[in-house]
Fold this sequence. Notes:
2 copies of one chain form a homodimer. The first copy, chain A, is globular. Helix content of chain A is 70%, strand content 4%. By secondary structure, the first copy, chain A, is mainly alpha-helical. Chain A is built from 10 helices and 3 strands; from the N terminus they run αβααββααααααα. Chain A folds into 2 domains: 63 residues, Winged helix-like DNA-binding domain superfamily/Winged helix DNA-binding domain (Arc Repressor Mutant, subunit A); 135 residues, Up-down Bundle (Four Helix Bundle (Hemerythrin (Met), subunit A)), CATH 1.20.120. Chain A has a 3-stranded antiparallel β-sheet with strand order 1-3-2. In chain A, a hairpin with a 3-residue loop joins β2 and β3. The N and C termini of chain A lie far apart (67 Å). The interface between A and B is medium-sized, with 24 and 24 residues.
Amino acid sequence: MTLIENTPSSLDPTIEDRSMAIRESLRNAIIDRRLAPGTKLSEAEVGALFDVSRTVARAALQMLTFEGLVKTERNRGAFVSNPSPEEARQIFASRRLIEPGIVAAAVDRITSDDIARFREQLVEEERYMNERGPAARRAEIKASGDFHLMLASVAGNAILQRFMDELVARSSLVIALYGRSGVSSCGHSEHFAILDLIERGDAKRAAALMLHHIDHIEADLDLQPKQGVALKDALAIS
Amino acid sequence: MTLIENTPSSLDPTIEDRSMAIRESLRNAIIDRRLAPGTKLSEAEVGALFDVSRTVARAALQMLTFEGLVKTERNRGAFVSNPSPEEARQIFASRRLIEPGIVAAAVDRITSDDIARFREQLVEEERYMNERGPAARRAEIKASGDFHLMLASVAGNAILQRFMDELVARSSLVIALYGRSGVSSCGHSEHFAILDLIERGDAKRAAALMLHHIDHIEADLDLQPKQGVALKDALAIS
DNA sequence: CCCATTCAGATTGCATACAATTTGGACAGG
DNA sequence: CCTGTCCAAATTGTATGCAATCTGAATGGG
Lengths: 238, 238
């Protein structure tokens, strides 16, 4: 019996669906800020870019719309989300609610292997911090978010992990729009401190520091309505 | 200038999309237990039922898949979700994390108008409780979930509200599969008690009671793997 | 009698064609 | 010059057709 299943490129097991692959690709482009908020994502254009029909491109855009990374207006098309200050506040309020619990769950489940992987990740994060240039900045933002996602993964709750996927991605958009300094420099050392507390099994302090950390991230934002956005929203409301 | 927009049936403003309407309809059928877990939802069948093409039906099923109410297997089709005991535990763990925070937020924002609406809702819930028959049971389950959703709506965070939409709907599926007594009778009185504490502004006790309430709901479950499900999962893993 | 193979029917995955809607500009009137 | 109307190009919404895949029963061999 021969293995007819030749598993063409199975690095990621979830690339069963081409629309899923496109979603991932666009997702990364959005959270990396290669696609700016407000950018139009026409079905034909996306389809041509990935060499698929509009049907598949449309499915990918629908998924991103569900995640809140893309906003579609009927008969007008899909655009990279342009979160309002109010949306930004809600995103961080949600994170304040969820992440301390994730940290507490991670304390109970984390292994020494996990901790080693976390340290590697934090070292990489540090490396990008010391580099210059927009590419390093993008990588730094991505790595910073990945810390929170790894934590969610260790916590062992697939549902919360999915919620965090969404919240971290949308946070990245918010920081791109309203961030004062790109990335708060204290964030990185706080990641280290949180990991230390988790390693020591101090769930209470780890959760408290995570709360503090989220406050810091949000404090670095300047949540004033952007001119263009405000105008657009006003038109949408009237 | 005549109003060409004749707004045919605009009770729900979000029925701009036919696929959205189908999603709502199927969603209600699933959480009402008119569609049992495991039921196959073929694109052609759904399309014929709602008099749309497979394209539109497919979009609705994709949305439900994203919400976790439907599970689709590639080249096989979509089925009403059959949550495993582990999934059930994760759903309730998520609710324990999120709902106390929602209650606390609701305390700060609730108006006397809201409270009146809540009391109406609870009276209706009580009415269904005293009725007999499967239709009343379905209505009771729905009403019981609606209490939690109204709370999320009052809390004023659209993101958390969407998370709760998903969690409550999936909880309904879990209760249908693993519920010992259908609906725990103490749940209703706890709803009243929670509302009272919210009205008095006692956020701490209200949140604590909500936690207790969720524990009660989960305690009423018998989270043993169902035979058929276990077999199916075993095949999927092997 | 049991088991592996094959094949037809059914269903999904995807592409394409057509209808409906929006948009921006041309154009006529004030 | 400004304004309102109308139309054509472009884009989305939807239906449908074809290819790929799965399922389950019929069939032939052991």
